[in-house]
Amino acid sequence: MKKRVLAGMRATGRLHLGNYLGGVKGMLALQDNPAYETLYMVADMHAVTTPYSVEELQSHRREVLIDYLAAGLDPEKSVLFLQSDVMLHGELAFYLSSVMTIARMQHLPTFKDKVKQYPEHATMALLNYPLLMAADILMYKADKVPVGVDQEPHIEVAREVARKMNAQYGLSFPEAIRFATEGEYVPSLLGAGKMSKSVEGSAIDVTDSLDEIEAKLKKAPTDSGKGDEVPKTGGVANLLTLVELFEGVEAKQKYEQQYVGEGIRYGDLKKQLAAVIFKELQPIQQKRAELVADSAYVDSVITKGAEKARAIALETVNEVRTAMGFRS
User: Is 3 a catalytic residue?
Assistant: First the structure.
């Protein structure tokens, strides 16, 4: 039997390079592998766990799905759907919450980070974010989840929930593992942390033009371009990581040698990097323009994907309802 894969991205804005390298590329690799059955969703329910705009959510949920299609995800090979079109995710998350303690959720580093970021928005939805993610994964009995390394704590919660539900109710949820991708951690342009939709100026969107990419890279912090040792952290280190991701390790090594030698001319580096990034994104942008012009096709993908996902989800939720005593 084929193994199942489930992945999703929050509907909080257009996809950026971090999403593309850390998520979509892995999703594409698994989609084209005949050993796997792939389900890819737009995680719009997850978007409400932090402050959001209703109008932007309505737009973003569709835009992310279009980005999926533009990047190469194929509705003939994968089930593509909007999470909120399968509201059984919320029901399953509630059932899963019965085997996890508040203390366990509060101790997650991701929860603590978000509370610091949004001190006035420490809601139950935010606390239960990992349980909704666990429901997403367990709903489709996924074996692999192509997400970045920062999501490993949430994958561990899903494994823990699976073990507890299996032991307590005699269910057979698999313990999913993270599928690592080459660009699983794409650094921020600001010099600290990773690219993020929620941090202004930290990311390059997959829809950015060459001029926009150049402008964003120009703002990336650097130093004099010369020193005894290549920085391991900060703006220069992040810039060199982007060079490695898009131009290869040899290009990165060339700049490292320049840094401890004659010095790096960051203007040239950033211009070259912008051109390489845009070259990779250009086919995606061209495909995206075609999809935006064909709204009927996008609508059909959303409708058919929801139908396929709901059929699988209902089967799983009925198993859980029966095991927990809600069905005879």
Answer: no
Active-site entry in 114, 141, 252, 270: 114
In the set 25, 144, 194, 270, the catalytic residue is 194
Establish whether 114 is a catalytic residue.
yes
Q: How many domains does the chain have?
A: 2
Residue-range definition of the domain harbouring residue 10: 3-185+295-324
Give the model confidence (pLDDT) of 74-116 as tens digits: 999 999 999 999 999 999 999 999 999 999 999 888 888 888 9
Contacts of 149 (CB under 8 A, 6+ apart): 178, 180, 184, 185
Report the alpha-carbon distance of residue 190 to residue 270 in Å, rounded. 14
Q: Which of these is catalytic: 25, 197, 252, 270? A: 197
* Catalytic (active site) residue 232: no
pTM (predicted TM-score): 0.87
Does residue 200 form part of some domain?
A: no
Q: Rounded to an integer, what distance in angstroms lies between the CA atom of residue 137 and that of residue 276?
A: 35
